[in-house]
Amino acid sequence: MSTNITMEAKMKGGLFKAIGRKFAGETVFLTEFTPAGGEGLVAFGGNAPGRIKPIELGEGREFIVQKDAFLCAEDSVDLSVAFQRRLGSVFFGGEGFILEQLAGSGTAFIHACGDFVEFDLEAGQSMKVDTGCVVGWEGNVDYDIERVKGVKTMFFGGEGLFLTSLTGPGKIIIQSMTLHNLAFALAPFLPGSSR
Q1: Are 141 and 166 spatial neighbours (Cβ–Cβ below 8 Å)?
Q2: pLDDT for res 193
Q3: Quick check: is 160 in a domain?
Q4: CB atoms closer than 10 angstroms to residue 44
Q5: d(C-alpha 32, C-alpha 79), whole Å
Q6: 133: nearest Cα among 165, 178, 89
Q7: CATH for 180
């Protein structure tokens, strides 16, 4: 950051929102960066190789993202906890019970592994995605979990037992690689590996 930037940790939104953020994998306190005497520069990075994407929010537009996808946002963006709406999503969705909801107005930045692939779904159009690869979706996109069809596919297909079904209208963002898959791919090359 440039030398004219001041940092201050704040419990934005009060105690209940702070506790919600903690459950969503974020910190209780958010750090606010403010320039003094003109414009300043602050840079942010993710915790693993991947992409950072700006999400433009406005009136009536919210975005739901996987746990730990939130990187930073303008002060006018509200970060809160979002709960899965369906029981199947809670137990088999791969992202758990808690998601992060971005609302308000302004720009928020999200981060995930690999590359981002985006789709604009029409009303009623559905996409089935590996549950760990879903990064986020607009608030009006319907989200559910489906069991993979066929016993052979379930046990020998290598993709797991469940897929996420996303139904439009709205934008969805998926990632080309999960942190789990990246760690699994790198494991044989790490010191102390049995391979």
Answers
A1: yes
A2: 57
A3: yes
A4: 11
A5: 14
A6: 178
A7: 3.60.160.10
Question: Does 112 reside within a domain?
Answer: yes
Contact 116/53 with Cβ under 8 angstroms?
yes
Is residue 111, in this structure, part of any structural domain at all? yes
Q: How many domains does the chain have?
A: 1
Chain-centroid distance, C-alpha 108: 11
The reply to whether 27 falls in a domain is no
* Residue 141 CB neighbour total at 10 angstroms: 19
Task: Provide the pLDDT for residue 93.
Answer: 45
Q: What is the pLDDT of residue 25?
A: 58
CA distance 136 to 132: 11
Q: What is the mean pLDDT of each run of 10 residues along the chain (195 residues)?
A: 91 61 62 91 89 91 88 88 57 58 93 93 92 89 76 51 85 90 85 66
pLDDT on residue 89: 45
**3-state secondary structure labels for all residues of 19-86:** HHHHHCCCCCCEEEEEECCCCCCCCCCCCCCEEEEEEEECCCCCEEECCCCEEEECCCEEEEEEECCC
> Which structural domain range is residue 99 located in?
50-185
Nearest-angstrom CA–CA distance, 150 and 92:
17
User: What single-letter amino acid sits at 81?
Assistant: V
How far is residue 72's CA from residue 107's CA, in Å, rounded to a whole number?
9
